[in-house]
Structures are given as C-alpha cells and as structure tokens.
User: What shape does this take?
Amino acid sequence: MKALVFKSAWEMVVEDREIPVPSSGEALIQVIATGVCGSDLHGYTGHTGRRHAEQVMGHETVGRIAALSDSSSGLEVGQVVVVNPAMSCGACSACSVHEEQRCESLRVIGVFPEQSAAFAEYFVAPLQNLIPLPEGTPEHLGALVEPLAVGWHAIRRARLSPEDLVVVLGGGPIGQAIALAAMRAGLTKIIVSENIASRRMLLERLGVNPVPAEDLASAVQAMAASSVTVLDAVGSSESVAQGLSLAGRGGRLVLIGMSEPLLEVPSYEVSVKEREIMGTFCYSKEDFRSTVDWLGANVDTAKLLVDAVEPLAAGPQVFHDLASHKRDASKILLSP
Assistant: This one.
C-alpha cells in the first residue's frame, strides 16, 4: 500500500508499506479521506516534538471496513465508518465514569508512533472505535468529526451558561469547531478572533462574528457581558496572556490549542483577579458519537469547512505549503 511517511522536520515522502493485518478486536480500514490537522503540521516542522521519524500520521479520518476480525461486532465489510482515534482502556477510574479522554493509558491513533495511521491506503483500528457514518452523508465529510468533537468537548467542559459571552482565540479549524459547538449548545454571544481574511469570511458564512485580533478587546467591551469565557485555540504564551486579559475578574480561560509545549503565564493575572485556567483534550466516546450524529444532520454547514480534497501522493507538497503558509486554506483532506 502507499503511505505518507514523516522522515524528519520538513520532510515527508510517499512509500510502499505492507498492508497491516487486524488482530482480534480490530478492523482493517480502507481510507477514504484524512484531514491534515494543525498538530500534524506542528509535528512536521519539528516545533512540538510530538511526531517521530518513520511515523505514518493521520487521525482525522473516515474509511470503509475492508476486513473484520470479529463477525459478531455488528459491523459489516464495506461499511463506511468514522474512526475515533482515541483508544482508552475501558477499565480505569476515568473510563468508568465515561470520561475516556482522561484515561490513564490513552493513546491516539496518528500521534503515538508505534501504530501506522490514516495517511495511508489502509490502517487498523479497534472495533469499538468505529462508528457508522449516517446514511446520505457525503463520505469525505466523516473526516471532520474528529476536530468537531474536539470543539464540542471544549464547550461541554467549559461549563457555560446561556448569558456567557464566548470569545474564541484563533479562527482555524479548531476555532471554527469551537464556535460551531457553541452554537450547537444554544449559545448566541460568540466572537472569534482571526487575522486571516479568508477565515473571517468562512466564519461569517458559518454565522459567527469574526474580528481581527487588534479589534478584539473593543469588540468584547462593546458586548458589555457580565461573564466572559475565553477559549484559546492557539495555545501560545501570547494568546494565554491575551485570553486572561479578556476574561475579566473571576473569568475563565479554556486552553485547547497546543502551539507551544511550554507557556509563560502571568500568574498575578490569575491569582489576584481569581481567574481560572482550564485544560481540555480530545473528547469522550459520547462526545465523539454525538458529533457523528450532528454531522449527519448538518451536512450543508460541514461542507463549508473543507477547502479541498487532494490525493495522498500530493501529501508532501500539501504539508510543505500549509506549514510554510504558502497556501491559504483551513482544512485540506488527503485521499488515497
């Protein structure tokens, strides 16, 4: 099979690899489409150190079941499924209360290097992580479930009330997912900070109010909200400082973005003004499953999120152009 292999910082190649064989409790997935995530790009450039040489990445994916290890699973060969890449143990204290994203032994397909993932023609995944794509949903859109589930989990975890002003820092794919999740939750006061004009145009089409970063403080002040929750989809020292300044006394900053592995935090801005910093990561199984249902019911909205579907063979160029900002795009899918 063909696979897109990470060699070193700024180097990826398409290679021939053996088709993996599913073990007990697994299925072989023939990939339909896989999204290029910001975390993949950060790994590609070597910025975060979260990707490793010879690794096949790819965790935002949809595919067709090519082989099953267990015919009693209720799934069928040929069925189109969305793959939840977060593999949890099912037995620890977190899993027992259905917060699988906190599992003590959580592994994410496409992130941990030992398993070949979805930037390939085939990969294997646990049967329990496969969710059938709702009938009538364009197949490639299934690759959007993963980032949309990240946004939904962040909103669920943020403990928002209907009167809250939601401020999202960063209008890329995760920022878009957070804004859509806020609307999904019934929230109406939403501002997204984004400097790229094309992304602001997309956010407007999604029904969200986007503003350039330099206008964000005045836009928040104009809303005159009694409670402001900031969701940081960037994850840099600069964005954290900005988020805390916007949150107000007693406000909340929810950290989703992972732009930098180490952050400088203005500690007095947290303690003296009794602000709260909250982390959020991945999603529970129910977050993911409910987002599959949401996608099936909101196809027209989801279509707006995909800039292009490119062949897997173009992967090295796609990664280079996105990482070097030579291509103005939010979400590119790669398809074998």
